[in-house]
Specification:
Distance between the termini: 42 Å
Radius of gyration: 19 Å
Number of domains: 1
Number of strands: 2
Strand content: under 5%
Structural class: mainly alpha
Order of helices and strands: EHEHHHHHHHH
Largest sheet: 2 strands, antiparallel
Length: 183
Protein backbone atom coordinates (compact mmCIF):
# COMPACT_ATOMS: atom_id res chain seq x y z
CA UNK A 1 0.00 0.00 0.00
CA UNK A 2 1.37 3.42 -0.92
CA UNK A 3 0.63 6.52 1.13
CA UNK A 4 1.29 9.86 -0.51
CA UNK A 5 1.62 12.57 2.14
CA UNK A 6 -0.78 15.52 2.05
CA UNK A 7 0.40 19.05 1.39
CA UNK A 8 0.74 19.73 5.11
CA UNK A 9 2.84 16.56 5.51
CA UNK A 10 5.12 17.55 2.61
CA UNK A 11 5.61 21.14 3.68
CA UNK A 12 5.61 24.31 1.58
CA UNK A 13 3.83 24.34 -1.80
CA UNK A 14 5.74 27.41 -3.02
CA UNK A 15 6.58 26.61 -6.68
CA UNK A 16 9.96 28.31 -6.33
CA UNK A 17 10.79 25.99 -3.45
CA UNK A 18 9.61 22.70 -4.84
CA UNK A 19 9.83 19.94 -2.28
CA UNK A 20 10.52 16.46 -3.51
CA UNK A 21 7.54 14.13 -3.46
CA UNK A 22 7.78 11.70 -0.57
CA UNK A 23 6.22 8.28 -0.89
CA UNK A 24 5.87 6.11 2.18
CA UNK A 25 5.42 2.39 1.60
CA UNK A 26 3.46 0.43 4.17
CA UNK A 27 2.49 -3.21 4.36
CA UNK A 28 -0.82 -4.30 2.92
CA UNK A 29 -2.55 -6.05 5.85
CA UNK A 30 -4.56 -8.34 3.54
CA UNK A 31 -1.44 -9.39 1.65
CA UNK A 32 0.42 -9.99 4.91
CA UNK A 33 -2.50 -12.02 6.25
CA UNK A 34 -2.61 -14.16 3.09
CA UNK A 35 1.13 -14.71 3.31
CA UNK A 36 0.90 -15.93 6.90
CA UNK A 37 -1.95 -18.29 5.96
CA UNK A 38 0.02 -19.67 2.99
CA UNK A 39 3.10 -20.25 5.15
CA UNK A 40 0.96 -21.80 7.90
CA UNK A 41 -0.61 -24.23 5.42
CA UNK A 42 2.77 -25.20 3.98
CA UNK A 43 2.04 -23.61 0.60
CA UNK A 44 5.06 -21.32 0.98
CA UNK A 45 8.37 -21.66 2.73
CA UNK A 46 9.04 -20.04 6.10
CA UNK A 47 11.50 -17.86 4.20
CA UNK A 48 8.57 -16.07 2.53
CA UNK A 49 7.93 -14.29 5.85
CA UNK A 50 11.14 -12.31 5.30
CA UNK A 51 10.04 -9.60 2.87
CA UNK A 52 12.61 -7.87 0.69
CA UNK A 53 10.86 -4.60 1.58
CA UNK A 54 12.10 -3.17 4.89
CA UNK A 55 8.88 -1.16 5.39
CA UNK A 56 6.86 -4.38 5.14
CA UNK A 57 9.08 -6.01 7.75
CA UNK A 58 8.69 -2.99 10.04
CA UNK A 59 4.91 -3.14 9.67
CA UNK A 60 4.90 -6.87 10.36
CA UNK A 61 7.07 -6.44 13.47
CA UNK A 62 4.75 -3.71 14.72
CA UNK A 63 1.68 -5.86 14.08
CA UNK A 64 3.29 -9.09 15.30
CA UNK A 65 3.12 -12.60 13.93
CA UNK A 66 0.26 -14.75 15.22
CA UNK A 67 1.05 -17.00 18.17
CA UNK A 68 0.24 -20.00 15.97
CA UNK A 69 3.44 -19.31 14.03
CA UNK A 70 5.30 -21.28 16.73
CA UNK A 71 3.75 -24.50 15.44
CA UNK A 72 4.50 -23.50 11.86
CA UNK A 73 8.18 -22.94 12.67
CA UNK A 74 8.30 -26.16 14.66
CA UNK A 75 6.95 -28.33 11.86
CA UNK A 76 8.72 -26.42 9.07
CA UNK A 77 12.12 -26.62 10.74
CA UNK A 78 11.77 -30.12 12.14
CA UNK A 79 12.26 -28.98 15.73
CA UNK A 80 10.21 -29.06 18.92
CA UNK A 81 7.99 -26.19 19.99
CA UNK A 82 10.30 -25.81 23.00
CA UNK A 83 13.17 -25.11 20.59
CA UNK A 84 11.06 -22.44 18.87
CA UNK A 85 10.07 -20.90 22.23
CA UNK A 86 13.76 -20.59 23.08
CA UNK A 87 14.79 -19.24 19.67
CA UNK A 88 12.03 -16.62 19.77
CA UNK A 89 12.58 -15.82 23.45
CA UNK A 90 8.97 -16.59 24.33
CA UNK A 91 8.13 -18.51 27.50
CA UNK A 92 5.96 -21.56 26.89
CA UNK A 93 3.07 -20.18 28.99
CA UNK A 94 3.09 -16.93 27.02
CA UNK A 95 3.09 -18.73 23.68
CA UNK A 96 0.27 -21.01 24.80
CA UNK A 97 -1.76 -18.01 25.93
CA UNK A 98 -1.14 -16.20 22.63
CA UNK A 99 -2.38 -19.24 20.69
CA UNK A 100 -5.49 -19.76 22.83
CA UNK A 101 -6.43 -16.06 22.65
CA UNK A 102 -5.49 -15.80 18.94
CA UNK A 103 -3.09 -13.02 19.89
CA UNK A 104 0.02 -11.74 18.18
CA UNK A 105 3.58 -12.30 19.35
CA UNK A 106 5.40 -9.25 20.64
CA UNK A 107 7.78 -7.26 18.48
CA UNK A 108 10.93 -8.88 19.91
CA UNK A 109 9.70 -12.41 19.16
CA UNK A 110 8.49 -11.34 15.72
CA UNK A 111 11.89 -9.80 14.93
CA UNK A 112 13.61 -13.05 15.90
CA UNK A 113 11.18 -15.07 13.79
CA UNK A 114 11.79 -12.80 10.80
CA UNK A 115 15.54 -13.12 11.30
CA UNK A 116 15.24 -16.91 11.21
CA UNK A 117 13.05 -16.65 8.11
CA UNK A 118 15.72 -14.41 6.55
CA UNK A 119 18.45 -16.96 7.36
CA UNK A 120 16.35 -19.68 5.73
CA UNK A 121 15.90 -17.43 2.70
CA UNK A 122 19.65 -16.85 2.60
CA UNK A 123 20.39 -20.59 2.66
CA UNK A 124 17.74 -21.28 0.01
CA UNK A 125 19.40 -18.67 -2.19
CA UNK A 126 22.84 -20.18 -1.65
CA UNK A 127 21.67 -23.70 -2.43
CA UNK A 128 19.35 -22.83 -5.34
CA UNK A 129 22.11 -23.48 -7.88
CA UNK A 130 23.34 -26.64 -6.20
CA UNK A 131 22.02 -30.03 -7.14
CA UNK A 132 20.90 -31.01 -3.65
CA UNK A 133 17.73 -33.11 -3.86
CA UNK A 134 15.96 -33.38 -0.52
CA UNK A 135 17.93 -30.54 1.08
CA UNK A 136 15.78 -28.73 3.64
CA UNK A 137 17.07 -25.21 4.28
CA UNK A 138 14.72 -24.71 7.25
CA UNK A 139 15.99 -27.85 8.95
CA UNK A 140 19.62 -26.95 8.19
CA UNK A 141 19.21 -23.47 9.71
CA UNK A 142 17.72 -24.96 12.89
CA UNK A 143 20.72 -27.26 13.27
CA UNK A 144 23.22 -24.51 12.39
CA UNK A 145 21.72 -22.12 14.95
CA UNK A 146 22.36 -24.70 17.68
CA UNK A 147 25.98 -25.51 16.81
CA UNK A 148 28.78 -23.60 18.48
CA UNK A 149 30.92 -21.59 16.11
CA UNK A 150 34.54 -20.44 16.55
CA UNK A 151 33.80 -17.02 15.04
CA UNK A 152 31.27 -16.49 17.83
CA UNK A 153 33.58 -17.43 20.67
CA UNK A 154 32.42 -21.05 20.45
CA UNK A 155 28.83 -20.00 21.15
CA UNK A 156 25.90 -21.03 18.96
CA UNK A 157 24.38 -18.42 16.61
CA UNK A 158 21.02 -18.80 18.40
CA UNK A 159 22.58 -17.04 21.39
CA UNK A 160 22.81 -13.86 19.32
CA UNK A 161 19.22 -13.58 18.08
CA UNK A 162 18.11 -11.38 20.96
CA UNK A 163 19.63 -8.10 19.74
CA UNK A 164 19.79 -6.21 16.45
CA UNK A 165 23.59 -6.36 16.41
CA UNK A 166 23.54 -10.06 17.25
CA UNK A 167 21.15 -10.78 14.38
CA UNK A 168 23.41 -8.77 12.05
CA UNK A 169 26.44 -10.78 13.21
CA UNK A 170 24.65 -14.08 12.59
CA UNK A 171 23.40 -13.00 9.16
CA UNK A 172 26.88 -11.81 8.13
CA UNK A 173 28.48 -15.00 9.44
CA UNK A 174 26.20 -17.13 7.30
CA UNK A 175 27.07 -15.02 4.26
CA UNK A 176 30.78 -15.28 5.03
CA UNK A 177 30.50 -19.04 5.32
CA UNK A 178 29.10 -19.16 1.81
CA UNK A 179 32.16 -17.40 0.44
CA UNK A 180 34.62 -19.15 2.72
CA UNK A 181 35.76 -15.84 4.23
CA UNK A 182 34.68 -16.20 7.86
CA UNK A 183 37.07 -16.15 10.77
Amino acid sequence: MVHTPSASERGSQNPRKATPKIVIVTADPKRTGRLIVEVSKGKRSLSALYSPEPMERVALVRHGLPGTIVSVFSSGMGVTKEWVYGALGVPRATATRKVSHRAQLGSAATERALCIAGLIQQVEGLTAQADAPGFNASNWVARWLDRSHPALGSRPPADFLDTDDGRDIVTRLLGQMATGSYA
